[in-house]
UniProtKB/TrEMBL annotation:
GO terms for biological process: cell wall mannoprotein biosynthetic process; protein N-linked glycosylation. This is Glycosyltransferase family 15 protein. InterPro entries: Glyco_trans_15 (IPR002685), Nucleotide-diphossugar_trans (IPR029044). GO terms for cellular component: Golgi apparatus; membrane. Keywords: Transferase. The active site is at residue 287.
Amino acid sequence: MHQRARYATLSCIILMSFVALYRKYSSILTVDDAQGLEFPGLEGEYTIMHPTLIPDPPPRPLPPVPLERGSDGPRANATFIILARNSDLQGALLSVRQLEDRFNRRYHYPYVFLNEEEFTEDFKRRIRNLTPSKVEFGLIPKEAWFQPEWIDAEKAQAAMVRMERANVKYGGNLAYHNMCRFNSGFFFKHPLVLQYEWYWRVEPNIKFHCDIIDDPFMYMVQNNKTYGFTLSVYEIPATIKNLWLTVKDFMTEYPEYILPSSVNALDFISNDGGRSYNRCHFWSNFEIASLGFWRSEAYTAFFEFLDKTGGFYYERWGDAPVHSIAAALMLPRSSIHLFEEIGYQHDDWSHCPRSQELWERGRCLCTEKDSFDYSWDSCRPKWDSLVATG
Ligand SMILES: Nc1nc2c(ncn2[C@@H]2O[C@H](COP(=O)(O)OP(=O)(O)O)[C@@H](O)[C@H]2O)c(=O)[nH]1
Ligand SMILES: [Mg+2]
């Protein structure tokens, strides 16, 4: 009996030792790691190598990125312009945060926010908190925003009801009509914008996928560019039923403002030498452009000609086709620039640089296969063929 008790005690001690050892090492013994593990104090005898895993290749050196580039280089007389409602605050914060991180922390270009209502103190405080740059908040004058008196309100209302029933995007939304007219004919005349020569239009809730290393404004200045874009798309036909007819009337009345088709970008917006509009337009939610062009005699005449037909209300003309048609007819095609390196997303539509070199240099988040550029409803192929013809 005495003997048995001694055996039992000994067995217990041995068992408890095994349990203690197991507890100590079990967590590391089950780690599934390709690199192998060294346990301090055990001189490598418990090193585990998983036989089936292939080790990562050594990191490939990336090209050096001149992150501080431009911090004391020349600057353009330029600003960001963001049209927004107070309810767009969250989206505006996201856009500014990205713009600062990807570009403006090195350049400190100012911002102008515009709204047809006063921005709230909270809106201003939270935006100002994101950037050391100058930020100004402007109220849009009533005459630059609301439907003018000379518009037949009943006719405009009937048109909106018709478009709403026909599911025309934003057709029944009066504020959207106001916004399109404002962006077509007024933003560049706002008192806070008058001091600048160049602007970059930014919307709430957009994304910048890549570092923007070089200054796009200075690129425009130094390379004789007037209008810059990233995405181009086809307009919804029901929104612009009579736009091209009106443009043709303008071209007949003011031929002096239209450049020869061998020089301008007519072939981007028309497949038949100007008889019809192919609905291609630069997507104006992103624009880097000269304010002087919109303030020019030629564009002023163009906008006033379109505006007096009432098409911003009797139809739903967008500022994108209006800007694009003017740029394509009145500018040399060589002064219109595609910013290939700027990875950009608006809603579900995304531009991602296709060149490996640009993609790596910009440390882009996007992937080329998600780029909209060569989807069936993108006008990028038309732009490429225009550029290819020189
Ligand atoms: N202040 C103000 N901004 C507006 C209004 N409607 C649209 N916007 C702005 O105009 C731009 C285009 O509007 P959005 O809804 O994004 O239209 P989409 O890009 O054509 O789908 C964005 O910058 C909006 O913040 C409005 O009623 N008031
Ligand atoms: Mg938008």
